């Protein structure tokens, strides 16, 4: 009797499947029973391999690299696991394979690449796991389908991987070469099919904030009195079309309620002062608030970020652990907010299993009132389910949850319970007050039936409308005019993006859509997928290691208590460069969102793989052609190739200097002078002046790390270190802290004994390259703390640092390193 070889994505899932199916014993690296073998993939074991990309060279003449066929190779660090799977596939008693990798695009790709590279020709089937409970595993095993049923999903997975390679490799090499040709410096400028448009969204918001010009406006507020109390109403123009819905944006203006002409507003104030209201009328109506839809991954990540400031990646990690480790929730990497139409009975079972506080009373309320089937198509809708249904609890009560896991689990369970409750009901009263022919309006809102809000509590964040309750008006009662006043204000710039709003922008292909129904209609044209958006954001936020071990600046950073997403100078510069050089198409969220839409159609067998890849190849050729045209009139980059000797001797030791176009170096003493300073390339004449005379300038065109322009005289120091001299230098308008002389502090430099200055964001030595950043791990150093560490070599323990990896706060002392050239953490003795 032949055996099945079941290949899940992770060792833990392999163990769960073995336990659920029963009869397995543990072998060396796999599980085996009388009729099956289970061995995991440990994630991706195989990657795309294009030999011509390694041999074609990096010049523009070698681009684009578009292989006729993508090759494959085993990933080096997990090669042994691939060999194990290959060996098991070749066993004579293995008759067929089972793909039990994660039920989605990436899981399909992992399995397909492994069997292709292994040369497997044995038939395969698919286990499609929606949750990791033993019952769900056994059900998926019983209902396995032919692997060919998922060929369209595999096509979309391959297209995603290959298109990312084509755009990433060719775009990054082409853009890097163009920037090198323009700046005469060697630098890498990686671009990506999804990552670059995502960065563009953040950069565009930052530009809108920086370029925003506030406008003065005035409102007229009236305070009126009744027997039961007083109320405040705003003047409005009944003839204007008033905004019916308050928006969260800080710059939202109610049409017909604001004045940009102060004199006009003051005239109405003068007209109404001291005049008794001629009429007061209340209009009441009942309104409802429908329960929220079930969570897909993106809405779960947005909610966790808005409520708890948990990052998208951490939310995904928590949701994955709840699914895989605790078996408490369903598969998380889903874009659906609905359940199958035959899932009504299953929902009832899950409700009955939620027996612990604080969920039991709400679950019993749903069951007692027969509300499970009430939502109808709002919850149970096969047309809104692709590969997976919404994220819901399984009924398994988890234990030992981490803080993030507990918060995410609570969000999922409460959203599940709320979805089966009736709508919340309100009475909304609008009061119109007429004074001297002018109209004033206010409204009040009273919760009548909490409905789904009872799951959260009536004072929860879900009841977002904070409209106050109006004091009652007795029929026929006249109001008193207590005060009419003018209120001045200024329009506000757009709010910075948070991870929650950035996820929403990615989901809507760059359109910041708050309306749930409209967002759902656009969801198939988003940037990336629910499963990949968190990693895209984290990639842009992560500082990568250079070859020399130092950290490169990330493209974005989190800032402040609200954890707002702000582009760095590097991110701003990359997007500006692409647009200024005719490569705006690489930054287009709509274009990339359309590609994602086509991949989604491909999964449904409505789009051909060959057509999609042809379009990506044409796009890639267009990008390289645009780069070639831009680079055609620029000097050759040959000068930045192999190092060549120069006539000028080394200013430190008199030895021979070599140049590769970006640096002048001396092999004898280690002297190195860079041809770029503060993002400004140095001309040949300027560089020669530094080498021969030791200084040059004053020069304009430098850019600080804060993005501000500044001017300075350049002075050459030991080993080619360049110093900025600001004294007597005329600064340009808008120059930042780095472009002005620093403020001296008392403590000397611990490395060389020279003076130390506070220059904007950094405390820097005026002679050597010693510096201390003014903010370390989100803690802003006080002048006293800096003085202490420089004078005494160490501080007492300081609280309030925030780990960039975990987001947790910690305390530590600061101390000088052994060579006294930098400041580092001191956590005390390790126990």
Present the secondary structure layout.
Elements: E1 3-8, H1 11-21, E2 25-26, E3 31-32, E4 36-38, E5 46-49, H2 51-55, E6 71-74, H3 79-89, E7 94-100, H4 105-118, E8 124-126, H5 134-142, E9 145-146, H6 151-183, H7 195-210, E10 216-226, E11 229-236, H8 262-272, E12 279-289, H9 297-308, H10 312-324, H11 344-353, H12 360-368, H13 403-419, E13 424-435, E14 438-449, E15 480-490, H14 499-507, H15 516-522, H16 533-541, E16 556-559, E17 564-567, H17 569-580, H18 589-603, H19 609-631, E18 644-649, E19 656-659, E20 663-666, E21 672-674, E22 676-677, E23 680-681, H20 684-693, E24 695-703, E25 709-716, E26 722-725, E27 743-744, E28 756-759, E29 762-765, E30 771-773, E31 775-776, E32 779-780, H21 783-792, E33 798-802, E34 809-816, E35 823-826
Parallel strand pairs: 1-4, 1-7, 7-8
Antiparallel strand pairs: 2-3, 3-4, 5-6, 8-9, 10-11, 10-15, 11-14, 12-13, 13-14, 16-17, 18-19, 19-20, 20-21, 22-23, 24-25, 25-26, 27-28, 28-29, 29-30, 31-32, 33-34, 34-35
Helix pairs in contact: 1-5, 4-6, 6-18, 6-19, 9-10, 9-13, 9-14, 10-13, 10-16
Protein described:
With 831 residues, this protein is of the alpha+beta class. The chain is built from 21 helices and 35 strands. β7 (94-100), α4 (105-118) and β8 (124-126) form a beta-alpha-beta unit. The two termini are 56 Å apart.
Major sheet attributes: 7 strands, mixed
- Walk across the major sheet and give the strand order: 2-3-4-1-7-8-9
The total of helices stands at 21
| Residue share in helix | 25-40%
Which residue ranges are poorly predicted, with pLDDT under 50 across at least 5 consecutive positions?
241-255, 637-641, 733-741
The coarse silhouette is globular
The residue-averaged pLDDT reads 85
Distance between the termini: 56 Å
Q: Would you tell me the structural class of the helices and strands?
A: alpha+beta
